[in-house]
UniProtKB/TrEMBL annotation:
It comes from Candidatus Blautia faecigallinarum. It comes from the Bacteria. Keywords: DNA-binding, Repressor, Transcription, Transcription regulation. PANTHER family: HTH-TYPE TRANSCRIPTIONAL REPRESSOR PURR-RELATED (PTHR30146:SF148), LACI-RELATED TRANSCRIPTIONAL REPRESSOR (PTHR30146). Pfam families: LacI (PF00356), Peripla_BP_3 (PF13377). InterPro entries: HTH_LacI (IPR000843), LacI/GalR-like_sensor (IPR046335), Lambda_DNA-bd_dom_sf (IPR010982), Peripla_BP_I (IPR028082). GO terms for molecular function: DNA-binding transcription factor activity; transcription cis-regulatory region binding. Residues 3-56 form the HTH lacI-type domain. PROSITE patterns: HTH_LACI_2. The keyword Flavoprotein does not apply. The keyword Transcription regulation applies. This is LacI family transcriptional regulator.
Length: 347
């Protein structure tokens, strides 16, 4: 016969109300929490999700809404969110709106009709205000990745990567290796993540004389990955076809870096011998290339965990720190895609 909360009460000596608080993610004393968790393991207790939902008026579901489910880059992020909520016995629904604002609106309305308890949303760009429709329906929402342009008018919880500091670190690294002519390849305007990375990169260059920064002309809005890659290839070819091409390229995300590597191979330009490449974002492919890419890597697992914790607080009625804006640090990985011009100043 399945264990019940009465069995947990007998095992721990705690009241049913204390155990109920724990099961509904309410705050209890740490020592009681440890007793309950030990009893749950010992008795192999499995909560009745339907009964829980009826008692709490919750559906025990949360949704993660992404621009594109085909973009495997977000896999670690979604996995960490799903893992965080699985521990609380929530089901996580993954949805995508394919960079289509109409589809995004319809998806949010669908999730509201399904009475999800909360939503973690990756907006299409910084001007995306779809999250306000969830707020109007009293559904807690946390934004990931983009910092909204209208946050003062429409406050919302946000978790983002430390884009500026990551960009600055990459600039300082290139400068330390003797690079002064640097190309920046950027996929999109109206993206707070991209603009912050570029601003951080510029900041890292400000105290160095004779810096020659050359920026690509980004597409107006974020578009599908294959289009971004094609544009990156075009921009790289243009930058490298002049008399004094850059000695290094800063790719503002992993898709542009892939485009650069493909086009460099097409043009017969070796990396890093012909041009150095550095990237904001990491990817497993980067580590196995002939010249593994030096990069600043987002801590996607921590970002997912941080967003999950904020959403749980909101779903439990704790709005004491709203709006919370959390910035998660990046890690730097030095590999083999940058040539040291100080040791070999031929360029």
């Amino acid at each position: 016969m399945s264990a019940t909360i009465k069995d947990i009460a007998r095992e721990t000596g705690l009241s049913l109300s204390t155990i109920s608080k724990y099961l509904n993610n309410k705050s209890i004393q740490e020592q009681n929490k440890l007793l309950i968790e030990e009893a749950i393991r010992k008795l192999d207790y499995r909560p009745n999700r339907i009964a829980q939902s009826l008692r709490s008026e919750r559906t025990m579901t949360v949704a993660v809404l992404l621009p594109d489910l085909g973009n495997y880059f977000w896999g670690d992020l979604v996995y960490s969110i799903a893992s965080s909520f699985a521990e609380l016995d929530y089901i996580v629904i993954e949805c995508a709106y394919n960079y289509d604002s109409t589809a995004e609106r319809e998806m949010l309305n669908y999730l509201a009709a399904k009475k999800v308890d909360g939503v973690i949303l990756l907006p299409v760009n910084e001007e995306d205000t779809m999250y306000t429709s969830l707020q109007e329906m009293k559904i807690p929402v946390v934004l990931l990745d983009q910092y909204p342009a209208f946050i003062e008018r429409h406050p919302v919880d946000v978790v983002q990567s430390d884009n500026e500091n990551g960009g600055k670190k990459l600039a300082e690294y290139l400068i330390s290796k003797g690079h002064r002519r640097i190309g920046i390849i950027s996929p999109a305007e109206y993206s707070s993540t991209i603009s912050d990375r570029i601003e951080g990169f510029r900041e890292g260059c400000r105290n160095t004389e004779e810096i020659d920064l050359r920026c690509s002309a980004p597409v107006r809005f974020i578009v599908k990955d294959e289009v971004v890659m094609d544009r990156a290839k075009d921009f790289f070819r243009e930058m490298m076809s002049v008399d004094d091409p850059p000695t290094a390229i800063f790719c503002t995300n992993y898709i542009t870096a892939m485009g650069v590597f493909v086009e460099a191979a097409n043009m017969g330009i070796p990396i890093p011998g012909g041009v150095s490449v550095i990237c904001y974002d990491d990817d497993p492919i980067f580590r196995s290339m002939a010249s593994p890419i030096t990069c600043a890597a987002q801590e996607l697992k921590r970002m997912g965990e941080t967003a999950s914790k904020i959403l749980v607080k909101r779903m439990n009625g704790d709005w004491s720190d709203f709006p919370a804006v959390r910035t998660v640090g990046v890690s730097f990985h030095e590999r083999e895609s940058v040539r040291n011009l100080n040791a070999d100043p031929a360029k």
